[in-house]
Amino acid sequence: MGKVSVRFFARYAELAGCSWSAVNVKTPATVADVIARVREVFPGTKDLPPQPLAALNERQVKLDAQVRDGDEVALLPPLAGG
Amino acid sequence: MMHLTRDPLDIKDLLAEVQGPERGGTCVFLGTVRTDDDVTAIDYSAYEPMASAEIERILAEAETQWPTARVMLQHRLGEIPVGEPSIAIAAAAPHREEAFAACRYVIEEVKKRLPIWKKELHADGSPTWVESP
Predict the structure, then answer these.
(1) pTM above 0.90?
(2) ipTM here
(3) Which residues have CB under 8 Å from A60's CB, separation 6+?
(4) A2-76 architecture in CATH?
(5) Lower Cβ count inside 10 Å, N or C end of chain A?
(6) B112: which chain A residues are within 8 Å (Cβ-Cβ)?
(7) Chain B environment of A55 (Cβ under 8 Å)
């Protein structure tokens, strides 16, 4: 098992009810596995899109990116900077 | 210079970062909170460490592509009233072509890549998340 930090921002933080948490996942795991676990732990996140934007350790990644124990996964609503 | 700030943006400070005697063309882009559908302000939030790192990467890419240019940007966070800028970009280069091109590159990449979100605040107090830039 690995412990992964999860961060939620903007509308996703409202859905999750928090901006930071951690989930346990069976490793090896991908970002998609972490998101699947998040949907189980935080019922409000069932309204997340099927394939949300995600970052792993502060870099945007595809959902098949490999996650290790201690990593940080961030779920990013559609970007709206500027 | 910090790339993310909660204070009003100061264009003079930004210009001081890029201007120099060998750079004869300077281009400034300001993105300003506008009044759409009774919006009175926009509350900006960010994944701050990632946004700072991504800004560094974007500026480095611009200076690699236009090696004679110097480019700097600041993005303001928190509640910003209509009429005040949320982002300021300054690019200076020996000639205007590189200054315009570098400035344009940076704002377009910002729109695609920065983990920053907007919550519009309306006159009646209701908020709306902006999910398409």
Answers:
(1) yes
(2) 0.91
(3) A53, A54, A76, B113, B115
(4) Roll (3.10)
(5) N
(6) 79
(7) 47, 50, 115
